[in-house]
TrEMBL record:
Superkingdom of origin organism: Eukaryota
Region (Disordered): 176-211
Polar residues composition-biased segments: 180-197
Molecular-function GO terms, alphabetical: RNA binding
PANTHER family attached to this UniProt entry: MATRIN 3/NUCLEAR PROTEIN 220-RELATED
InterPro entries: Nucleotide-bd_a/b_plait_sf, PTBP1-like_RRM2, RBD_domain_sf
Keywords: Repeat, RNA-binding
Domain PTBP1-like RNA recognition motif as annotated: residue spans: 86-163
Protein name stated in the entry: PTBP1-like RNA recognition motif 2 domain-containing protein
Pfam family of the protein (one): RRM_8
Length: 211
């Protein structure tokens, strides 16, 4: 699956010998350092007349305020371009205009293989879900086919990364989590004197990714 970051670097390399270095920020944007200022100007001018795109989505170029880029990834976590394929996918849903449930996600991802477990939660990045397939190959096929696609027309866009988790722990089968290998799980937590919010990740036995 071609990375948008690598694609941006290839676009710029068409107009100069090669970008001297590249560094990427969030998954929706990339910073590319050209060999010199004239190469940057040429790239901007060239792509004002030709509209570049990645997987059918338009990409827009502009000058950055950065004078030089570094390749230190420690503050951003793993570089998604270097993600090792895993049978667990981390899915972020952008532009979510309709409710997202376990049933909806299962319907979207199950055509690519047996989905064992799904856990959903809310973070600052938006609605997220961890989806565990029975096999790594199924997860690879799902990521390749669904990344950047919309669940509904014009909304609910899927941003998919490989999780670094090895196994999801699910304790409840309801609209927020489901273990499809264990249908006998209860639907709700038993009353407790000190109640936790359902979105507390400790209920599922894993650390929230990207934190």
């Amino acid at each position: 699956m071609r990375s948008p970051r690598l694609t941006c670097s290839r676009w710029c390399s068409r107009l100069a010998r090669s970008p001297s270095s590249s560094c990427c920020g969030p998954r929706t944007r990339a910073l590319v350092q050209m060999e010199d200022l004239s190469a940057s100007i040429s790239a901007i001018q060239y792509y004002t007349t030709i509209q570049p795109s990645v997987r059918g989505r338009n990409v827009y170029l502009q000058y950055s305020s950065h004078q030089e880029l570094t390749t230190d990834q420690s503050s951003h976590g793993r570089n998604p371009d270097q993600d090792e394929p895993n049978r667990i996918l981390l899915v972020t849903v952008h532009h979510m205009l309709y409710p997202m449930t376990v049933e909806v996600l299962h319907q979207v991802f199950s055509p690519y293989g047996f989905v064992e477990k799904i856990v959903t939660f809310q973070k600052t990045a938006g609605f997220q879900a961890l989806i565990q397939f029975q096999s790594r190959q199924s997860a690879i096929q799902a990521a390749g086919a669904l990344h950047g696609r919309n669940i509904y027309d014009g909304c609910c866009q899927l941003d998919i990364q490989y999780s670094n988790l090895s196994e999801l722990q699910v304790h409840y089968n309801n609209d927020r989590s489901r273990d499809f290998t264990n249908p006998s799980l209860p639907t709700e937590q038993r009353p407790r004197s000190s109640q936790l919010g359902y979105n507390d990740p400790s209920l599922f036995g894993f650390q929230q990714p990207g934190g």
